[in-house]
Amino acid sequence: MRRVFPSVKGKVCLVTGGGGSIGSELVRQLYAYGAGKIVIADIYENGAYEVSCETGGNVVVEIASVRDRCKMDFVMSQYRPDIIFHAAAHKHVPFMERNPEEAVKNNILGTDIMTELAGKYRTDNFVLISTDKAVEPVSVMGASKRVCEMLVYEKALVSDHTCFTTVRFGNVINSNGSVIPLFKRQIRTGIVTVTHRDVTRYFMTIPQAVELVLCSLELVENGGIFVLDMGENVKILDLAEQLIREAGMEPYKDVKIEFTGLRKGDKLHEKLFYSHEKPQKTIYKNIMRADGSGMDNLSDELKELYAMADKNDKDGVRSLIMKMTEGE
Question: Disulfide check for 21: which of 130, 175, 196, 301 has CB 3.0–4.6 Å away?
Answer without folding.
Answer: 175
